[in-house]
Amino acid sequence: MKHDCDCIIVGAGVAGAMTALVAQRHGLHVIVVDDNATPGGQVYRQPSPYARAHVPADAERREGDHLRDKLRTSGIEIRSGHSVWSVTAGFRVELCHDEAMASLSAPVLVGATGATERFHPFEGWTDPAVTGLAAASILLRAGGILPGQRTVVAGSGPLLFSVAHQIMELGGEVAAIVDTASTAQWARMGATLVLDAARMGQGLAWMREIRRRKIPIHHRACVRSVTRRGSVVDVTIRSLAGNGRDVTIAADAVACGYGLRPSTDLSRLLHARHDYDGAAGYWQCAADPYGRSSIDGFYVSGDGAGIRGASVARLRGILSGHAIAHDMGRIDSTTFADLCRPVLSRLRRLDVVSRQMVRLMNPGGIVLANTEADTPVCRCERVSRATIEQAIDDGAHEINQVKSWTRCGMGPCQGRMCEDSVRQLLAHRTHQGPDVVGHYTTRMPLRPLPVQAVTGTYTYADIPLPKAAPL
Amino acid sequence: MSVRTSSTHRYDAVIIGSGVMGATTALMLGRAGLKTALVDRRSIFREASGVNAGTLTLHMIRAGLIPHAMRGREMWLNAREWLGRDVGATATPGLSLAFTPAECELVEQRATVRREMGAPIEVISGARAREIEPGANPDVLAAAYCPLDGFIPTYVVGQAYARALAQAGVDVLEDCPVSDVTPCDGGGYDIVTGGRAGMVHGTRVVFAGGVWLQRMLAWLGLNVRIRCLINQLVVTERMPPVMNNVISIANGLLSLKQFQNGTVLIGGGWQGEGNIDEGGTRVIPENLQGNVRLARHTIPRLDQSRIVRVWLGLESETDDAMPIIGSIPTYDNAFVIGCVHSGFTSGPYMGALLARHILGEDVDLAAFDIGRFTAMASPVSQEEK
């Protein structure tokens, strides 16, 4: 196969960008492919002009701008606005850009595709007032747009307090913060955070502001239901400790998300080995600290190999860049080890904090406590919990059989939203481990693909018709 | 649950392979009172029977199988009566379109052969075809029309079978890959599985393993070549109604239908890549493009849709592209069923037919006798096994 470059990097977030910069420094010809309009990924997403004017700059904004500057001056080819819809061994990457198709090939492929938000259903979660927590963060930081005038911020993980802070900064009201974790869990987290002074300082600043405004925080609690009442919604908050009474408050927006999980589209499509991380509650592509997967030449960098956050993603990117250069014979083992040693040592330190954070994000078996028989678990296909449980009772004991019998996960989101919930329901009802029930098989295209893009302009004579089937 | 075993692990009949052929055979034997086990390396209906295009068509099927396909189609439409549950089978007419003069000839030729076998297919003008299917490309010159086509959302069928098998008392042994089958001195067969079922004994054994049949038959020393077709399937997101019929084209390499939920399924046997020994299949991007171009040419409004999923299903085929169904020569109480072209349509009928044969009824399976392949072949040596 004739290759277009030495290495294709999918994703121009911090991990992909650092991999590219380091690999290029070692003399490799890299091409970065990214579906956003500009590089930066989620954490360092380029703000809109409106957001630049209205949202005060923070460290992440400055780091993001710096990263984009570095990429610009490096001369690395970055194909922004290109969505990867398939990857095949070898490696060949299929792209869609402005309804046109393209493909690239290289002997080395890096998946730096970051994280996906984790959702769990509740009564009323399909109401337009409800957005994801990470989605709200993007809206706020990159768009300078409030999710509503009065927002309930709910779910799990540090994003809760980050989003609450962002809402306040833009002049919005936070009606309540609803967190699945307990104060004791946060105290343990705090004790670990001394290893990461920057994050510690940021967190404390957020908490001061939240306390000053007397925003109610419900720990060990979740949003039980959202009921529309004209232009507002009633948000019912339920204690997970099993002793509290339900509390209902009025709001016009709910930002709810249960942490992040690795985006594993590419690695699943390539049939790389994946491991289930029980503490985190998700599947991740198995990879060594340098991002080497079970498939030769395929590397996973950043959050795709397990959620660790932007600081770790930067280090993982650097390590992957060195490793690719080493594995392609551009640097010897001694140089490689020397270059990686300080990075690895910093990585180990931050990793302790990140692992703790990942545990905090994991809401556990929340779907079981938080849904009724008729709650839609798969929102694309409107598959209720009862339908899923009927399939399980009829003998489906593996997640793809549940998908087949109920259509859950077959809609336009391609199972990204319901997989975690279906896995929990199935594991619980069949008394199997969540690792045993498996994960959805990823199919191409990785995103819905316009027929016009696939077909292009053609005539009937252009179609390479195979010979007729036998009589 | 996945494994329903009795303490003895001894069965009157053990069926290996839980697609539509094996599962129907098992269901009918179980209902006839035989203690029956249905064994599969994975879950039921997860290979070809759960992922095929679900076309109930007389246009595309081998002419020689038309009588069976017509009966199979009837069974699907009446599934509530014999399977206990409706499986969403929908009867529609079917059209096979011709866009070039050469294709008009082909349509005529294929229709004639099928008519002789009993399919009520007539050739109509392009204008008439457009009346029947207003969504079709105005360039259509002629079409073969059959009032007896239809489709099924195949992915739901397994659930109906799972219930029916449980009610019939059939033990469904999932996740139990069979590694060997050996005849016993006292009669019957020992079946070695890698799952929780361990070793099971069957007075009768039925091989119903689709593309894995070649390997299964080798356990008994038979060398029958089974080709594996890797058929590509494409489904769109839900869209407003764009078509009412099952549509194919003259050369048979397209199947199109819109399900009640609005999704359009594009099939037709365009090939992917893969290997049943190593597992894993791969879509060929050029074949995806070709298949979808053909679909869009046929129903132009498909240009408004998006493709949500592409997958591959494995179809088995013998050297003469006709099925192997019936007793295995020189072995008592060993049977085979498979390699039925467009086998999903006729599947329940074929499975029921084999069950009747096993139960001692006089049914005509002469055309499907595996003896036509085994008579000449030399037995597989132990090394090759």
Automatic annotation (TrEMBL), chain B:
This is FAD-binding oxidoreductase. Keywords: Oxidoreductase. Pfam families: DAO. Coiled coil: none annotated. It comes from Komagataeibacter melomenusus. InterPro entries: FAD-dep_OxRdtase (IPR006076), FAD/NAD-bd_sf (IPR036188). Residues 12-356 form the FAD dependent oxidoreductase domain. Gene3D superfamilies: D-Amino Acid Oxidase, subunit A, domain 2, FAD/NAD(P)-binding domain.
